[in-house]
Each structure stands twice: as C-alpha cells, then as structure tokens.
Design goal:
The complex is a heterotetramer.
Chain A (H helix, E strand, L loop, with lengths): L7 E6 L3 H10 L8 E6 L7 H9 L4 E6 L10 H19 L6 E5 L5 H18 L3 H5 L12
Parallel strand pairs in A: 1-2, 1-3, 3-4
Chain C lengths: L1 H13 L4 E7 L5 E6 L25 H4 L4 E5 L1 H12 L8 E6 L5 E3 L3 H8 L8 H12 L2 H12 L7 H5 L24 H14 L9 H5 L7 H15 L26
Parallel strand pairs in C: 1-3, 3-4
Antiparallel strand pairs in C: 1-2, 4-5
Helix pairs in contact in C: 3-4, 8-10
Chain D lengths: L3 E5 L3 H11 L3 E8 L2 E6 L18 H4 L3 E10 L2 E6 L8 E6 L1 H14 L6 H8 L1 E6 L25 E5 L6 E5 L2 H9 L5 E2 L18 H9 L6 H6 L7 H5 L6 E8 L2 E8 L20 H20 L9 H5 L6 H10 L3
Parallel strand pairs in D: 2-6, 6-7, 7-8
Antiparallel strand pairs in D: 1-9, 1-10, 2-3, 4-5, 4-12, 8-9, 11-12
Helix pairs in contact in D: 6-9
Chain lengths: 149, 667, 266, 341
C-alpha cells in the first residue's frame, strides 16, 4: 500500500520565509512536495480562522512561518502574531485540536536549508500522525440525517 | 464574470524538467472563468510577454496568472506587461512553479500535482483581485550614505555630482576606511593614500555633501523617498568651527601610549588625536576613555595650549534629524582577529601578525615609515612566511566562504617584501590561487617569477617559537604532502574578511535582510546586486561581501545611479497594498464599531480616528481610519479586527480565504 | 435596598439620570432587568445574590442609549464590563452614572469611571476553584478525549446566540458570524459550524472577557462553553501576568513583549 | 376514527417501549442532561426522564431538523447538476413522552409547511412519526395552554395519549389515530380494558389567563402601540425563544460547498435576530428589537390565525423558560390584553 501523503498548507510571510523558500529553490535543495505555500505580507496578517479553515477543508497539517524576532520587515508584526499564537494554541489544545498538526517556525530569507528541514520534518511528523480523520469525521455533517443519526 | 488567462512558463528547462507544463496549462484551462491557458518556453521573454498582451487584447482578460518563477523575481515584469496591454497591473498574480516547486522536487506526478494546485490557488485569488491605482508619494531628494570608506566616498561623490544633497555618516573620526590603511594596491602598486586622499578632500569640500564624522545612525523611520533619519553625533569635545587643526594639542597631550587603531596597534597615539596625518576632517577628537581629564578630572593641557580655545570638555552627544529619500549602506567589513587559530600563535608571538598590520608596516605613513621591521625587536626579517586562507574557506572555523581579496594582497605583500628587503626570502602557503580579474593573474606570476616568492601549496599545521625563530610546520601537497618546515622571522596571516560587529543590529534598524554571516543581503544575487529587499535602501562595497577596491568603487557608482534614478522623479508610485477601514452607505456607514483596539497593533501608528457626521455636523459614529501615507501594508490590524472592518488590498479576506479553499479542494 | 431605591429616586427626580438600569423580580422569583425612568419606578428595584445578569449588556443597546444619561446598579462583574467598554469607546462618563454594589451589598456612588477603575483593581481577575478543577480534569484527558468531550457538549448547540447576546463585550453591529463574503463561520449548527463559532467567540474575548458567566447563564441548553473563556483568562495570567480592564493603555492582545515565550516556534 | 380507551399497567409501560424499539422504530424520549431535559434517541427505558413539566426544546426537531440538507449540487461540464435529497431513508420514528401542547404544535407547524407549496421532506417525516403523548398532571407559572385553546389532557395531534391515573402509576391510554392503533397492535396484550378512569380528575388545573380571540382582535389596532418598546427593552435579541418553540418555522437557506460540489441546507432562523430582515442595501425594515418583538407576537397571534386559521402558539411556555432575560410571553400577552389602545 502506498505511503500516506499528507496535505499540508504553509502560511508564510513574504519577506522572510517566502524569500527563504525561494532560496531553497535557488540552492536546489530538495524537499517533500506535500506542502503548498500561501503568501502573506507578514505573519501579523495571518488570521487564526484561516488555520481552522484549512483543517475544515481537509488539511492534515499546517506550517506557519515568518521572520525571526527583530527581523520583521514591519518591525513588530511577528511579535503580535506570536502573542496571538500563544493563546490560540492553548485554546485549540483545550478544544482537542491536535497542536502537533500546526508547526510554527521562524525561517529567514537566508535560511533556505532550514525551510527544507522544516517542511521535511513536518511531513514526517504528520505522516506518523496519519490523516486528520478525527476532524474529517465532523465534516460529513450533511451526508447523514441530522436527528435520526 | 471573470475571464482569467493562465500562462505556464517552462523557464527553459528549469520548470519543465520536473513539471509537466502542458498538463498544468491544460488542467487550468478547465477551471471556471479560465478562458485562456497556454504554456510557453520563456514567458518573461519578449515573445512570451507578447503572448500575454495578445491574449488580454483578444479575449478581454480580466485577470492573469503567470505560472513561472518567484513573484519576487518577475512580478514587476509581468504586471508591467499587463499594464501595457491595458489590464490593471494588480489583476496579475504569479504562481511560483520554479523556486517553490520544480527546483525543489523530483520529476513526477506529485510535482505536477503541486504545480496544478498552486496555479488553481492563484486563479481563485486573482478572481478576487481589485483594480488598484498606485499611490503617489513625494521624494525627498537627499541621500544618506552610511560609511565613509572608499565605497561610501565614491557613492557620495557620484550622487552629489548629479546635483543632489548627500549626508555622509562615518563612525570614526575620519573618513577613508580600510583603504586609507593600505600601503600599495594591487595590481598596479600605486600608493593607496595617494589615490584616496584627493577623494577624501573632495568629499569635505563638496557643496552638496554634509559630512558627519564620529557619528552613527540612531534610528530610521518611514519608507522609500520619505525616510526620517536620526543621527547621533558623538561629542568630539571640540568646537570644530574654532579648531584650525594646528595640532598643538596633540603634541602637548601627556597621554601618549594609546595603541593606535589606525596602525592596527603597531603604533601609538595620544588621547586627543587625529587618526592619521591625512585625516578628513583634519581636526582632533578627545578619546574620553583614555583622556586624563575625563578619568581623573584634571589635566586640561589641550585646553590651555589651544590657541583658538576650541576644546569643549562639557560638549554632549548631539542628535540631528534629516528627511531622507534614499540610503546607501557602505559600512564595509572587518578582519577576523586570527586568535581563533591558537596553533598559529597569534597574540602569543608578537611577530605573527595580520595582513592589515603588515599593510601598516609596509606603508610609508606607517609606524616604521614603510620599512619591514618585525614588531618584537624591530629587526628586518630575513625569512618571512605568508599564510593565505587564515580562516577563510574553513567550515571548521565557521567561515566556509572565500574572502576573495587575500590571494591578491598576499601576493602584493610578498612582492613588497622582496622589493624592500633585498636578499630576503618569502614563502606563501596557499590552498588555491584565486586571481580572477584584470591583470591579477599576471601580477601573481610576477611575484613568483620575477620577485622569486616561494609559493607552497599546502596548509600550515603549527607555528612555534624556537630560539628566536618562528618554526612554521606545513606540508607541500604538490610534492605528495611532503612535510615542510621553515624557520621564519615573521609570519603574516591573511585572516578572513568578516561582517562588522553589530551589522545585524543596523540591518534591523533599517529593516533590510542579512545573510548567515551577517553581511547585508542583496535583493537578487544576479539582477539586483545593489538593491536590498527594502525599497530605497542600496548597498555598496564590502558590507555585502568581501570585495577589493575596484569592485567596491563600481558597486558604489552602481548604487549611486540607483539613487540618482530615484531622485530623477518628483513623485514615486508606491504599491497600493495597504489597509483601509470598511465604509458603506447609510444607515450602516461602516461595520467598524470603533473599539480602537487596532490602534495599538499598528507598528506605524498609521491608524487614527474618523468621525462620521450628519450634514448639520452631529456625530453619527466614530470609527478607525488608516492613514494611507503611513500604512506599510503589514496587515497586523486586519487579522486582529473582530468585525473584519479593516481589510488590506492584495491580501483581502476574500483573497486569502479563496486561496485556502482552492488549495484544498478540486475545482 | 431602600438606600438604592432612594438613590435612584433622587437621580431620576433631579434628572441627572434619564434611565436607571437595575434588577427587579421576574417570573417565579427570578431576577431580571428593570429600566426605571420615573422616580416611582424605583419602587420595583431589588437586589440580592440572585441578581446575576450582567446589566452592562444594555449600555450599548441603541433603544436604551436613546433615552439619554444612563444610571446602572453595578456589581463587580458589571463594573469590570463597564471599564472595558469605556476602554473600547462604547461608554463614557458623559453617558453613564455608576452606582456600585459591593459583594457585601454596600452601595458606592461613583463620581466617574476612573473611580470605578480604581475600585475594580483591588480585586484580581481570577477564575474560581470549581472551574479550575474542571479545566484540570480536561487537561488530564488526551487530545482525542477532549475532542470527543467538546463534540458531545457542543452537539446540542442550535446557534441561538444567546451567549453572544448576553455578553456585554459582544456589542459589534456586525458579528463575524454574520460576515458572508467570505462566510467565515458556517451558518448552520452542525459539528464544524458549532466548533468554529465557539472558537471564534473565545478568541474574540481573549483579554476582554471578565468572567461574569453571563454567556453560560444565558445558554438555554446549559453548554459549558464558558470553560473556553476561563482557560483564556488562566493562560493570560500564566503567559502574560494576567489582565484587568483599564480605561486606557494597552490591551492584552494588541500589544506584545519582545520576550513573550516562543518555545513552540522552531 | 373515534378515540378508543384502554388501561396500561405501570410495569407494562417499559414493555411497550421495548416492543417499539424491537420493531426497530427510532424512539425519541425525554432525557435529562446538565439539568436540561430534551428529546434524544433512546433505546434504554431507564434513561427516560420521568420528572419534567416540559422539555427545554420542543420535539419539532424530529420533523424539522435544525440543520437539514435539501439538495446536493455538483459542478460539471454542462453546468451544475442538482440532486434533491432522497426522502425514502427517513426512519419510522416514535416520539415518546411529549406533552399535549407539543402535539398540537405538529398541526401548527404543518399548516406553515403546507400553506401553499407542500414541503415534501417535512411531510415525509411527519408521516413516519408517531406521537405517544403524556398528559400533564402538573403545570408551572409558564404554562398557558388553556389560554390558547388547549388543555393538559388535549388529544389533538397525538396518536396515543397516556394519562397517569393517580399514585398507582397506571395509565389511561387513549388510542386516537391509526398510527396509535398500530402501536397498540405491536403489543396488544399490554392494552387492557379501561376500568372507567375519570381522566379529568388526574389532570393539572390551569385556568385560562387571557382570551386569545380578544388578543387577536386587539392586535389589529395595536401595531403602533408603545407597549412593544416597553416590553422589549430588556430583550437582548437572541434566538432562544424561536428555537425552543414548537411552532416557529422560520429557516435560512445556505449553500455549503467544498470545491466543485456541495449541499444546500436549510437551518433554523429567528425573527429576533437583527439580521433577519436586513436588506443588501443596508436598510433594515425592523431596525430595532421592539419591531422584532412585535413581529413575533403579531405573527403568532394575528397573522397565522388570519392566514392559516391556526395560532402560532400552543402555550407550552418554553420561550419564557428558555429566555435569558425572562421575556415572559404569558405576562406580556396579559398586559397587551389589559392596556387600552
């Protein structure tokens, strides 16, 4: 049987991680092809609901990545983002959303190799966890009779 | 109903080698609203761009997705092409099939699948894009040049000569930088100071240049064309207007044994000093760390002897503010102190010195007036060993890169030794000789063939002292790694060129990115070597990577042209990708409830208040308002607003939401 | 009791206050809001420990505001809400007169909101032991067990939004659930719709919830979703030293510290 | 068919329940959780709550689910393919232990779902649902069925009505419809001969508090009354009253799609929400809560009787019990009756 190929969405900032991922490319460093990047101006722009939406649309894992502290192109967008993540993670964790499926990282424009490493380790971890069946199961809400179930 | 065109680029083989571009184009062609989908070898080429323009004209495209390289590379190219064809440039998006896909994955199904997903995502995004007009902002036609070495000097002069104002900031007491420390320069052996000092003077006298020595950048705000720089002018304890530079104070200063930085500690200076005789400005500063008055509270000899009463002990640092349009970073580099080579005994044996120290020995204005005398006892060395790559190209020492200049200056050093010490013997241990550059290879050959410098290919394993001699143990790899042992009188280490102390702090002040070795990062390794990722900030010289003089000068002139081009416009257009607070007709007016919590999230204090009033002036509602002049488009407020009352062009709620949907669903 | 009635008669009589928001006795001895507009209305006012509705919810209600200067009998939670609402520019001294009621049922005639602010700052914003234990119990579960717990608890939720309507901090004219381009939160009440609604609600209240439990008391189905808010209060204390409503200055989530923890970021 | 009276012994009740489950009917019965009693699918008689005056929610969710798929759609080459929901798999279900006021609600709901076009899905569910009601031996201050034409032992709408006959715990069973007959047929031995129980003496006494006809006539002239604003000032505009109500039938239509396919669902909505009537233009004909509150009362006590000749209220009192701010319907109706226009 073929190995499980997780669907992973990466929410990254334009200035550091997106550029870092470009560097991974220019350096021809190979990594797993499971990840698709969505570009944001800054981690500060990344709406927490989008992460939930990703799971709601069937993602198995999520990467959120931006500039290292002090490196933010907008001075403090990443600091604001970090504080939001702290609370958001605790909330999701309490709600039983598996935080092992959301990986946060700082990847600078110079860290092409780190990006590859972040992606690969994420893919390995999510493979180990398997498909996010638990969440998928709540998605087929219309396929059954709501009350006669 | 949107009419989207998808243009899949092969990028020669770069994309098509691992991605089935035809399939990508064909699948994309099936998506809702996609009316045109093709693949082509080089989309960025003229014929490629023509394909896009033609399709816009013929099919009346409302949006374009170019699936090729990173938008960071060619977004401007393709947006321009769209604009030329009459489509709003902001209706063009790029799917990154090269850097994020073909270059990082193996050929196969999965890679093509990913490419398709990326294209679909951008197709759905572009459907939600809005036509936008660029924002016009005024340009302050004054440049700030940071660093007064040869690169900074060149950039300043070039900009000033185009008729624009320049503020040149140098942290030392004099401009000139490392070049002023050098003796002769390769490959022509002309005297460094002879060619540099006239330029230094020109800077000092240029009507368009304001020179701040002994000064540093305190902070920077704003954006291209509209920066505000705060500069700290450290106190020189001197009224420069009164000082004539006569130098009496220096001769009379009782503190005379301070190791001179300019002479790389091979000579001494006084507490009140000018770094070197040809310094610009040629006026002293008091080094408060060593000055007796500042330590003990008495002395003031300089004040007494000064004929013009120019000494100011109570002078304080001064902060000056300037409106700036563009910035050239020319902060240069440092030499790695080779003390991380214990086996070479630097610091332990006085006669093991760095290349830069050797420059001072060889310099006519140096502590030995140009005679090669060894530091320990002033004897002229009969045998001298030069070690190239002291640190460079040595991952174990944390410097995997090549410092580039060492091969040449080592050859120069050996050559100068042979010229100055007749009958002397010189040896060069090297890994490879990198002499790319006009007349460079010839120069090295001359050292070997005409001046009889002995080149030994191999590394030195150990240096130790034995009855007054430095025993250099190495191997000659060309003779089958035969052990070599040389009894030298002096050893010169060509230690690696590294980024300045604190360069990353400066980068953070300016919001420019820097590489793993803390050298400032260029916007593109090939096509934007003098630009940074931050618009309006440019790079010159060795602050980007180690460079020799001609390269630094060329880069400086390059940066100067970029600045001049910027200053040739009275207004520049800024990408209108900024935030705005929702407004709509009565009775709602805006879904903003005016909680004002967004105000403190904004890193630019760009959010303020707006009062919505009736015709007769009664307040209906107080809501947040984004100042488009200040907003930089980070979107931190957008993700924070509970009612989604703030949105940001280019990354609207609708756009990013559609992207997530499209990424994870079949269409 | 009479002290309160007299105070309100006086306020309404003198016209300093146009409408006074207090409690009165409702069906089967329950307590509910009373809007006294004439001095004689004050007769209906009552106060005891069963007065738990957070009356601050009414100070942002258009129909109430239109009546003019408001007065309100404010227990500690109500006072906290009022200060937070003032911080968010929804109420100000020119619009409200606060008559505080201490835990010992003592009346405090506050001159202005900064006096209210000073008063509430004598008390820590901390969740009670019972809920702390409940959260601990949840923490001991595995992630999947918590997931199952919430699926079961949230299943009955039919999205009547009583929790939102009863919360003084949910005063937005257009809540995110009503945002349909894009449709952030599914309208129907099904597993994922309910999950997303309660996550969103909890996040929007981080640093703003003052733990009055109005939401939970309002829920006709007794769903314990206020545990989410309580966890956020706990964590705000754990990570950032907690928060208190303030009239001005930084809001917990619209600021940051350079040394906020980041052990979860690679 | 005219009502047939039988006698069921205390211990036969469980047997009857088990018989129904055995006939693999889906049985909904009142279960108490977190202090709230609501109808849930039950297979184990012991789980059924006996001690409740009224369930928090009505049983309407069985025939009118809060979220219900009405069709599937999928994008294809020729446009969009639509697949209506298949009503065949709807289970045969029994609602056990509902109150007469709820049973009446079935008819009022039916009137709305059939006043012009007939709602197939709803009707299919109703057709397959049997109501085994329990008459009320107790009432609380929220109950007012008698004021809207009902009573604690009302047989209207039920298929079988069980009345607890005193301390003994035996029941009088009234078999009202054929569906009821079918239930009896499932375990005939449990339905003994009626010893002549006087039903009324076991029913809760609940004098009428107002006259619904009077209210209806009053409302014709009441539209502009100040009373609405006075009553609704404390209303916080949630949808609890509508969602627990046995006759509220308003729903919203939502398309939920994931990529190229999706479903159209209908889900409960409430006239109490400020967005209920919000126009795209931003204009809202019912801008303030008083207008929404008025709509709620008018619809139930004026418009429905006028158009559908049924009232939109069974007097179950759920809206008042469930209201977070004690908007007591009975109290407000009485005051409407009392105020002079």
């Amino acid at each position: 049987m073929a190995e499980f190929e997780p669907k992973i969405v990466a929410f990254v900032c334009n200035w550091c991680t997106y550029a870092g991922a470009d560097l991974t490319g220019t350096s021809r460093i190979k990594y797993a092809s499971n990840v698709r990047i969505i570009r944001f101006p800054c981690t500060g722009r990344i709406d927490y609901m989008l992460l939930i939406k990703a799971f709601d649309e069937g993602a198995d894992g999520i990467i959120v990545s931006g500039c290292h502290p002090n490196d933010c192109h907008y001075t403090s967008g990443n600091f604001h983002a970090r504080r939001r993540w702290i609370m958001f993670r605790d909330l999701c964790n309490l709600m039983g959303i598996d935080m092992q499926r959301i990986k946060f990282s700082w990847v600078s424009a110079a860290e092409g190799a780190k990006w590859a490493e972040v992606v690969n380790s994420t893919v390995t971890d999510i493979r180990a966890l398997g498909p996010y069946e638990e969440y998928r199961r709540i998605l087929n809400h219309h396929s059954k009779e709501v009350t006669n179930g | 109903m949107s009419k989207i065109g998808v243009f899949v680029c092969h990028c020669g083989e770069n994309i098509s080698a691992t991605v089935d571009c035809e399939k990508v184009a064909q699948v994309a062609g099936g998506y809702d609203g996609v009316v045109h989908s093709i693949d082509y070898k080089y989309m960025c080429s003229d014929p490629g761009q023509s394909l896009i323009k033609a399709a816009i004209a013929e099919k009346g495209l409302t949006g374009v997705v170019v699936a090729s390289c990173s938008p960071r590379m060619h977004e401007p190219t393709f947006r321009k092409a769209c604009a030329e064809a009459g489509l709003n440039p902001f209706m063009c998006e790029m799917a990154n099939l090269r850097e994020h896909c073909s270059w990082v994955h193996e050929k196969g199904e999965a890679t093509t699948e990913k490419a398709i997903d990326l294209v679909r995502t951008l197709v759905e995004k572009v459907k939600k894009n809005n036509s936008l007009d660029s924002i016009k902002v005024p340009v302050t036609k004054t440049a700030l040049v940071i660093g007064g070495g040869i690169a900074g000097i060149q950039a300043s002069l070039d900009i000033a000569n185009t008729g624009h104002k320049v503020i040149l900031v140098e942290k030392e007491a004099s401009i000139g930088g490392h070049m002023s420390q050098l003796s002769e320069t390769f490959p022509t052996l002309d005297c460094s100071q002879c060619i540099l000092t006239p330029r230094m003077v020109e800077v000092a006298q240029h009507p368009n240049i304001t020179l701040y020595t002994y000064a540093e950048l305190e902070s920077l705000e704003g954006f291209i064309g509209n920066f505000k720089a705060r500069i700290r002018r450290k106190s020189k304890s001197l009224d420069e207007k009164l000082c004539t530079g006569c130098g009496t104070c220096i001769t009379k200063c009782p503190v005379k044994k301070i190791p001179s930085e300019f002479n790389e500690k091979l000579g001494n200076r006084t507490a009140i000093y000018v770094p070197f005789p040809q310094a610009v400005p040629n006026k002293p500063v008091i080094d408060r760390e060593h000055c007796t008055y500042y330590i003990k509270g008495k002395c003031k000899v300089c004040e007494i002897v000064c004929p013009t009463k120019a000494i100011r002990f109570d002078q304080e640092d001064q902060i000056v503010e300037h409106e700036i349009g563009a910035i050239v970073l020319a902060t240069g580099f440092s030499v790695k102190q080779p003390d991380f080579f214990p086996e070479y005994g630097y610091g332990k044996y006085p006669d093991v010195i760095t290349g830069l120290q050797y420059e001072r020995l060889a310099s006519a204005s140096g502590p030995t007036l140009g005679e090669i005398k060894r530091p320990s006892d002033g004897k002229i060395p009969e045998k001298i060993v030069f070690i190239a790559c002291a640190g460079s190209r040595d991952p174990a020492k944390g410097i995997p890169y090549c410092s580039k200049i060492c091969c040449m200056y080592t050859a120069k050093h050996a050559m100068l030794y042979q010229h100055k010490v007749h009958g002397g013997k010189s040896y060069v241990f090297y890994m490879d000789i990198r002499a790319g550059g006009k007349d460079y290879e010839e120069f090295v050959r001359r050292a070997i063939e005409e001046d009889g410098v002995n080149y030994i290919r191999g590394r030195v394993s150990k240096i130790y002292e034995k009855n007054g001699k430095l025993i250099v143990k190495g191997a000659d790899t060309l003779l089958g790694a035969m052990p070599v042992e040389i009894e030298a009188d002096m050893v010169v280490l060509a230690s690696a060129g590294v980024a300045n102390e604190g360069s990353e702090t400066l980068a953070q002040k300016l919001h420019v990115s820097y590489d793993a070795y803390h050298f400032f990062a260029e916007a593109h390794p090939k096509l934007k070597p003098v630009e940074t990722n931050t618009a309006g900030i440019f790079l010159a010289g060795a602050c980007q990577a180690p460079k020799d003089i001609p390269e630094s000068v060329a880069m400086a002139s390059g940066a100067a042209v970029k600045v001049a081009a910027l200053f040739s416009q009275d207004e520049l257009t800024r990408e209108p990708l900024i935030a705005a607070v929702n407004r709509q007709p009565a009775p709602v007016y805006s879904i903003c409830v005016g909680c004002g919590l967004c105000i403190s999230t904004c890193p630019y204090q760009a959010i303020g208040w707006e009062e919505i009033k009736t015709r007769n002036g009664e307040l209906i509602k107080k809501i947040a308002k984004v100042n488009p002049g200040l907003c930089q488009g980070c979107g931190t407020c957008v993700a924070f607003c509970r009612t989604k009352a703030i949105d940001i062009q280019g990354y609207t709620h609708d756009q990013v939401y559609s992207e997530v949907m499209a990424l994870l669903n079949e269409y | 009791m009479d002290e309160l009635k007299n105070k309100v008669r006086e306020l309404l009589g003198s016209g300093t206050v146009k409408v006074f928001i207090g409690y009165t006795t409702g069906t089967a001895g329950t307590k509910r809001a009373l809007f006294a507009e004439k001095p004689e209305d004050a007769e209906g006012l009552v106060f005891d420990s069963s007065c738990i509705q957070n009356l601050a919810v009414y100070v942002t209600k258009q129909e109430v505001k239109e009546k003019g200067m408001m007065g309100i009998s404010a227990t500690l939670p109500v006072m906290r809400s009022l200060v937070q609402l003032a911080r968010e520019n929804q109420v100000s001294d020119s619009g409200i007169k606060v008559i505080g009621i201490t835990p010992e049922s003592r009346l405090i005639d506050f001159g202005n909101l900064s006096e209210v602010e000073k008063y509430i700052h004598q008390f820590q914003l901390e969740i009670d032991q019972k809920n702390r234990d409940m959260l601990e119990k949840l923490d001991k579960m595995t992630v999947s067990e918590r997931w199952q717990f919430w699926l079961k608890e949230l299943e009955p939720c039919f999205k009547c939004y009583a929790c939102r309507a009863a919360c003084p901090m949910c005063y937005c004219h257009r809540c995110t659930v009503e945002y349909n381009q894009p449709q952030w939160i599914p309208v129907p009440s099904h597993a994922s719709g309910n999950l997303q609604w309660h996550i969103m609600r909890a996040v929007h209240l981080v640093g703003r919830c003052i733990d009055c439990d109005a939401c939970a008391n309002a829920c006709p189905l007794a769903i314990p979703f206020n545990l989410l808010n309580k966890r956020m209060i706990e964590d705000a204390r754990k990570h950032f030293g907690g928060y208190q409503p303030v009239l001005s200055g930084d809001h917990l989530m619209s600021t940051f510290k350079p040394d906020d923890k980041e052990n979860f970021i690679r | 068919m005219n009502i047939e009276k039988r006698f069921i012994r205390k211990d036969s009740l469980k047997k009857l329940f088990d018989a129904l489950v055995a006939k693999n009917k889906v049985v909904y019965a009142p279960v108490t959780r977190n202090g709230k009693t609501s109808f849930r699918i039950v297979n184990d008689f012991s789980l059924i709550s006996g001690d409740y005056i009224q369930t928090t929610q009505s049983s309407k969710e069985v025939t009118f689910p809060r979220t219900e798929k009405i069709l599937d759609f999928e994008k294809n080459k020729d446009g969009i393919g639509v697949k209506p929901v298949d009503i065949q798999p709807v289970h045969e279900s029994v609602i056990w232990g509902i109150r007469p006021c709820d049973a009446v609600g079935k008819g009022e709901l039916g009137a709305i779902f059939n006043w012009d076009s007939k709602d197939e899905i709803f009707n299919a569910r109703v057709a397959k649902t049997t109501l085994i009601s329990f008459s009320c031996s107790r009432a609380d201050e929220y109950c007012f069925c008698t004021s809207v034409g009902g009573n604690p032992g009302n047989t209207e709408g039920s298929d079988i009505l069980l009345t607890l006959a005193g301390e003994g715990g035996d029941y009088l069973a009234e078999i009202i419809t054929e569906k009821g007959g079918a239930v009896m047929a499932a375990a005939p031995e449990l339905f003994e001969k009626d010893p002549g129980i006087e039903k009324d003496k076991y029913l809760a006494s609940l004098p009428a508090r107002f006259s619904h006809t009077e209210i209806r006539n009053k409302l014709d002239k009441f539209f502009e009354s100040e009373e609405w604003a006075r009553q609704s000032l404390r209303c916080i505009g949630c949808g609890a009253c509508a969602y627990v109500c046995p006759t509220c039938a308003c729903f919203d239509i939502q398309d939920e799609s994931h990529g190229k396919s999706g479903s159209r669902v209908r889900c409960w909505d409430s006239c109490g929400f400020s967005l209920f009537t919000l126009h795209t233009s931003g204009h809202n004909p019912r801008e303030v809560q008083s207008q929404r509150w008025r709509q709620r009362i008018m619809h139930k006590f004026s418009y429905m009787p006028e158009r559908l000749s049924v009232y939109g209220c069974t007097g179950c009192g759920r809206c008042s019990r469930g209201c977070p701010v004690d908007m007591n319907l009975l109290e407000h109706l009485i005051s409407i009756q009392e105020v002079t226009v």
